[in-house]
Write a structure and sequence with these properties.
This protein has about 450 residues and is α/β, with parallel strands linked by helices. It has two domains: about 110 residues, Leucine Aminopeptidase, subunit E, domain 1, CATH 3.40.220; about 300 residues, Zn peptidases (Aminopeptidase, 3-Layer(aba) Sandwich), CATH 3.40.630.10. The protein is about 35% helix and about 20% strand. The chain is built from 13 helices and 16 strands. The strands form four sheets. Strands 5, 6, 7, 8, 9, 12, 13, 14 and 16 form a nine-stranded mixed beta sheet that branches. The chain has a three-stranded mixed beta sheet with strand order 10-11-15. β1 and β2 form a beta hairpin.
Length: about 450
């Protein structure tokens, strides 16, 4: 249980656990929320009041859990949705492969005001969705192949009104997805292409495209062995997309969303794609692959081209695409490249509300020229200049976006995990920015 505590004696996030303080509960946690009203900070781009609630709820739930309390009632703390998010995210753990698992606490809303229950339920669904993404991304790659990921997507979609079509290699060949198949040819695991549909509106669909590299060795351009195990989460974009659809369907948001997920491993072998090879993407453009570790953009290229079949309102792709994004922004935000000022404003506000913010990066012709100024082929998969790796990657993707289509590219390499400093997330992969995507789409359903 929590008690709302007023005054300035308890610092924000500071928690005290008392025993025998209240007759109906064996223990009570008191947690500092900080100032009730905080001035708007245009530089931070985050709703600090909502974030304070998440952090406070997380801190107190963890304190009670550590004290052995396994049934916890949580007050709204002034924002029931944020309170639910902080509580549910903080107390979840990835422990699928432990023989002796910790018992996770059950968490409920306590003494709700009118309207708090609905807000609490919304926060619970959004936290559950992010936890789904966390579980998918932290699962070792031998237990999360393209085939297994497709099975998980089918399981998660049951009874939610989400249809799932699992396409195979023959289908990809019929669609002339030469870039996607070129990445897949080095692996013994068969590639899959998922097409998920959640239709609760008659409007043209929003299209989400998620990068689904279930393990990335770098291919022939082999990555260093240090921390290569983190590449089990190179399908974080795909996981976020599946989790977003789960939340939208659970909340019955009145939108039409199509999700496209190319799934493959990127492996070195005798049949693997080689540096210098030239391949042909679905839209007919030829690509010289100078670096086989720049594979995510290749599979996204064919998925972006395929999105034209649905006459989308907009297309958003999300991917752990470049280490350069981690260098640029660290774990502070997801980087966004877009041709739509209006959509970026909506996404920025969604990130502020969710506490999982975004930052706009340049999509200039300066970078496009580095990718397309070639004598013997149309596009190179890496830039010619020094630096700007995230920007040249986005410029590459832009070559495969359907004409006259509003588009956003979200690079989440910096927020993937596992060393994240968000106070209400534990160790491991983060599932970010699932809740931001949900907020982004919900905001447009209300227009």
């Amino acid at each position: 249980m929590f008690l709302l505590f007023t005054g300035n004696k308890v610092k924000a996030g500071k928690t005290f656990v008392f025993w025998g303080l209240e007759p109906d509960f064996q223990s009570v946690a008191i947690v500092g929320l900080g100032k009730k009203t905080k001035p708007s900070d245009e530089l931070e781009l985050i709703s600090e009041e909502r974030e304070s609630v998440r952090i406070a709820a997380a801190a107190a739930c963890r304190a009670l859990d550590a004290a052995g309390v396994k049934k916890i009632q949580v007050e709204s703390l002034g924002d029931a949705e944020a309170s639910a998010e902080g509580s549910k995210l903080a107390t979840w753990k990835f422990q699928d492969f432990k023989t002796k698992k910790d018992t996770l606490p059950e968490i409920f809303l306590h003494q709700s005001n009118p309207g708090d229950c609905d807000q609490w339920n919304r926060g619970t669904v959004k936290a559950e969705a992010q936890n789904i993404a966390r579980r998918l991304t932290d699962t070792p790659s031998n237990h999360m192949t393209p085939t297994i990921f497709a099975e998980r997507a089918l399981e998660l979609s049951k009874n939610l009104g989400i249809s799932v079509e699992v396409r195979d290699k023959n289908w990809a060949e019929s669609e002339k997805m030469g870039a996607f198949l070129a990445v897949a040819q080095g692996s013994l695991e068969p590639p899959k292409f998922l097409e998920l549909s959640y239709k609760n509106s008659d409007s043209n669909p929003f299209v989400l495209v998620g990068k689904g590299v279930t393990f990335d060795t770098g291919g022939i351009s082999l990555k260093p062995s240090v921390a290569m195990d983190h590449m089990r989460a190179d399908m974080s974009g795909a996981a976020s997309v599946v989790a977003t659809l789960y939340a939208l369907a659970s909340l019955k948001v009145p939108v039409n969303v199509k999700a496209l997920i190319p799934l493959t491993e990127n492996m070195p072998s005798g049949s693997a794609l080689k540096p210098g090879d030239v391949i042909t993407a679905r839209n007919g453009k030829t690509i010289c692959v100078d670096n086989t570790d720049a594979e995510g953009r290749l599979i996204l290229a064919d998925a972006l081209s395929y999105s034209a079949n649905f006459s989308p309102k907009w297309v958003l792709d999300i991917a752990t695409l470049t280490g350069a994004m981690r260098v640029a922004l660290g774990g502070s935000a997801s980087g966004v490249f877009t041709n739509s000022n209006n959509l970026y404003k909506i996404l920025e506000e969604a990130g502020s509300r969710s506490g999982d913010r975004v930052w706009r990066m340049p999509l200039w012709k300066f970078f496009t020229k580095q990718m397309t100024d070639n004598a013997a082929y149309d596009v190179n998969n890496v830039g010619k200049g020094k630096g700007g790796g995230s920007c040249t990657a986005a410029a590459f993707l832009k070559e495969f976006v359907p004409e006259k289509t509003d588009w956003l590219h979200v690079d989440i390499a910096g927020v993937m995990g596992p060393d994240d400093s968000t106070p209400y997330l534990g160790k491991g992969m983060t599932g970010r920015p699932t809740r931001t995507l949900v907020e982004f789409i919900e905001a447009q359903a209300k227009c």
